[in-house]
Amino acid sequence: MNSLRWRAMVGQFKHQKTGVAALIVLAVFILAAIFAFLAPYDPNRIVVMDRLQGPSSAHWFGTDDYGRDYFARALYGGRVSLSVGFLSMMISVALGTAVGTVSGYFGGKIDNILMRLVDVLMSIPSFFLMLILNAYLRPGIGTIVFIIGILSWMSISRIVRAETLSVKQREYVLYAKVSGQSTFGIIMKHIIPSIMPTIIVSASMNIASSILMESSLSFLGLGIKQPNSSWGSMLNDAQGFISDAPYMAIFPGLFILLTVLSFNFLGDIFRVAFEPKASKR
Asked: Is pTM, for the whole model, over 0.90?
């Protein structure tokens, strides 16, 4: 990415304070997840006498129905939710970029086959397919990451393909072909660097959707298993205590909301900064 695009991005952050707020929120959540081990309580320590205590100086977010410190569980739950979001994004972006660049660069039969495959996969309700796969695979964070990653790359591949179709007609790519550079070298050195802004925008949006998918699975009891926690599983645990302990649903729900909104705000800023036409609409 050239300096003009970076200046445009900095300019967008200066004009849109919501982008700065989103960066701050994400930085706080990421740092809190990284340093979750500094929490004063063990997130899995059960103290039956302390169950369902409201927020206090001893327990900032209160305790759950097993007497476990909710603040510590929220920190470790954030680590799981953010990890799933980032790792799933890496898988989906890698798959989507690979399929999109190959399809757009070669065209012809390869393009038709790959795009028809994408159309078929996109026509299948991904959430229900996710439920089926989760039922047959061994439960765990790795399984959740794998399932979300392989079911969320299709839209990225279509976007990358469209950009590749445009980039491959540019003079420096045509010159690289004439000069005898390998296909792999052209894709890695010329195509992907040119479409990197588009990939970054897609990645930021994909993290938000991955976190929502994980939260939905965990909320249904099909995601992260006890004693581990994620924000989605914490919402699942809170279902039976909405009237007695509403804070059990408020805190994880608020964290999911803020995280998804922050990534969406950043995605909009990246889109406007990297695509000049978008800023003129």
From this structure: no
